[in-house]
Backbone:
């Protein structure tokens, strides 16, 4: 299911491998214009079928004069639609249209001052002849512009930091307007979208919901759908959207693997069964999962065991429900982008547990109503649908649950210790007003015991690590500078009230090189 046909005003982003390509799409979506990312070598017939109002060419790590430099089909320049080239995308435009790109004497990386020479079109609303901070990341520069182009802005190391041919509506910028380090970047992109492409801000989550409900009804017809609910944002929004579209043709299954947070299964059941009146099925498989995890220490094996047993339990319950034709999944747009990236799938850092193996096992058709959306858009849809704010703004929680926050073997005793510590962490983070400001906050139970003194007695008990990180998309993350008094309250409460813990430590590692989760 795609938005093609539902939204006439679309922008196409051709990806040349930049680490910032998803950011371009997010900025365009934030301006309420629908866009999609496709590989740079998207066939011209598909580009025409997409019928874009404008095309954005992303940056990339290559040099245009390399033998294997990525090249989009030159016919995109003959479509008569506006084009904005960013960094490598600008160099592609230059190269294809007869200009000259050469290695710069000095690599320009980081903050730079941009002087605007033409405040029409791309730089409308920005002060001419004034210095504006932008983010540069390039080792090449434009030595000679193609015929018909003029300099729109320059910097110390880039005589052509921005160029344009207004008659053909072709523009290029050497810097990255999509990143936060370019303060006026959102305005520059809006100028391209609204002034140059003449788009209207019609991409709203209210319009998405209306269009998606119509499409789901047409696609599913009278058939039945099952949805694996976890209580997370993505599966919850998927379930409510489908229920709005097809009512009791939807059956939801929550597999309680015994690895959830305190009272989580009960709370999810109360919301979806009692509040929304859904056909909801809770499967208590706690003992089943613990039995299969007995003696398992390796984190990758843990994930695989949990994923395999989830499919076993889910499939068994689904068969009890009778004939079902569709499986609903909360797939998001970043997953779709990754699967079609010209660079191929990223190296596997760790297995992600979802229901990806179910369609093959159960011969079901997939329905993925959120596959066009970024995470922040999913949250917006959730709010539009009336889901509780606490659920919509819920922090990410790993598919294998607390199992990957217990280093070493997972036992019922160790789960109880971690659940109690985790509850305290979340309570104190919420009290401090930090829950919606940080990306994730959680506790990790280490396979380490240390000596302590409680009362007049020597203890030899467990260590709990706190992990609180800031991030935009989980691709990179930095440890949060949590106020000392908050850390002190968390530590004191855990040590005083969680039996079996006598030491709390704080993880100050960033990603990379560390991952957010410990396993």
Residues:
């Amino acid at each position: 299911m795609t938005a093609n046909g539902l939204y006439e005003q679309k922008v196409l982003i051709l990806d040349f491998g930049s680490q910032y390509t998803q950011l371009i799409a997010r900025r365009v979506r934030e301006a309420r214009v629908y866009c999609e990312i496709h590989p740079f070598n998207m066939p011209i017939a598909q580009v025409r079928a997409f019928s874009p109002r404008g095309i954005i060419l992303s940056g990339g790590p290559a040099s245009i004069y390399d033998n294997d430099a990525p090249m989009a089909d030159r016919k995109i320049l003959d479509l008569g639609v506006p084009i904005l080239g960013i960094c490598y995308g600008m160099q592609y435009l230059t190269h294809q249209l007869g200009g000259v790109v050469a290695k710069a004497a000095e690599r320009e990386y980081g903050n730079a001052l941009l002087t605007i020479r033409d405040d029409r079109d791309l730089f409308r609303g920005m002060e001419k002849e004034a210095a504006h901070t932008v983010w540069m990341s390039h080792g090449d520069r434009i030595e000679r512009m193609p015929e018909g182009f003029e300099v729109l802005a320059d910097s110390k190391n880039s005589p052509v930091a921005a160029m344009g041919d207004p008659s053909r509506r072709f523009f290029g910028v050497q810097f990255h307007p999509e990143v936060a380090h370019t303060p006026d970047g959102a305005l520059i992109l809006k100028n391209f979208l609204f002034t140059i492409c003449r788009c209207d801000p019609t991409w709203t989550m209210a319009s998405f919901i209306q269009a998606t409900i119509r499409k789901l009804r047409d696609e599913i017809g009278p058939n039945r759908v099952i949805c694996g609910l976890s209580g997370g944002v993505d599966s919850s929004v998927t379930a409510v959207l489908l229920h709005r579209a097809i009512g009791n043709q939807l059956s939801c299954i929550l597999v309680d693997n015994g690895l959830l947070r305190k009272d989580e299964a009960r709370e999810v059941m109360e919301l979806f069964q009692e509040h929304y009146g859904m056909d909801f099925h809770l499967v208590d498989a706690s003992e089943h999962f613990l039995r299969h995890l007995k003696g398992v220490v390796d984190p990758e094996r843990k994930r695989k065991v949990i994923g395999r047993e989830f499919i076993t339990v889910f499939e068994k319950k689904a068969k009890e429900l009778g004939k079902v034709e569709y499986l609903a999944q909360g797939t998001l747009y970043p997953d779709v982008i990754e699967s079609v990236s010209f660079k191929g799938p990223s190296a596997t850092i760790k297995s992600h547990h979802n229901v990806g193996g179910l369609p093959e096992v159960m011969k079901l058709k997939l329905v993925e109503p959120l596959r066009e959306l970024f995470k922040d858009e999913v949250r917006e849809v959730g709010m539009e649908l009336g889901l509780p704010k606490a659920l919509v703004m819920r922090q990410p929680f790993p598919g294998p649950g607390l199992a990957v926050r217990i280093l070493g073997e997972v036992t019922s005793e160790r789960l109880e210790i971690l659940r109690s510590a985790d509850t305290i962490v979340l309570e104190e983070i919420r009290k401090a007003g930090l829950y919606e400001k940080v990306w994730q906050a959680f506790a990790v139970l280490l396979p380490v015991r240390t000596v302590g003194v409680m009362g007049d007695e020597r203890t030899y008990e467990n260590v709990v690590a706190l992990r609180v990180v800031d991030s935009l998309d989980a691709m990179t993350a930095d440890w949060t500078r949590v106020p000392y008094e908050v850390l002190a309250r968390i530590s004191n409460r855990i040590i005083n009230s969680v039996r079996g813990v006598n030491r709390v430590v704080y993880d100050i590692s960033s990603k990379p090189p560390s991952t957010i989760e410990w396993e």
